[in-house]
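Q: I have 195 residues here and want to know how they pack in 3D. Can you give me a structure?
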Amino acid sequence: MSYRKDIDRLKLFNEKARRLLNTRFVQYILSKGKISFKIDVKKGEAVKIEKDVPDQDAVDAFVLTFRYFIQNNEQCSFGNLSKTYERQFVPEEIRKEYLRVRKQLNDYLDAPSSIKIEIEGETPTRRRILDVFIYGGLAHANPKKKEIFDKWIRDPIIGPLLEFCFVSILIKVLEVIRYVVGLNEKLLKKLEKQL
């Protein structure tokens, strides 16, 4: 039985993860320890918004590699990585752990943002925010998603709030990516012994 494609997929995931972990985005988060958002509303005064997040260039560079993990046309996406973890040669405990972590990630993404904000009568899920920012504004310009992105960003309060949400989502997904790197390393050791 050939494991070469599976080994290559696991190694590519880890390679792209290492690239993400060395971005200015991650260095910013590590140096600050957290991101923050503050809104100050006083009667008769302009709304003041302060956010402490990585700059746009750092976010753009991060997203360029981040897409490898969420686009299923990439071999190392979470979806395609499942093909490896579902194979019979994968030890049961490692398979279950990957599936558990992936389910937790999907549940997190499919839930509304922790910042309860209604836009046109609905609270967007984290997945929706991620999707609109990446494919409507940062990495692609899907016409429908770009229209939504532009509308969100133009709003002087909702725009910065959603930018903060987006960065928060990226950080959470990055934590999962880091965890999966460890699972991949365990599986790679087992597979390479069998070659």
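Q: Anything worth noting?
A: The radius of gyration is 19 Å. The mean pLDDT is 90.
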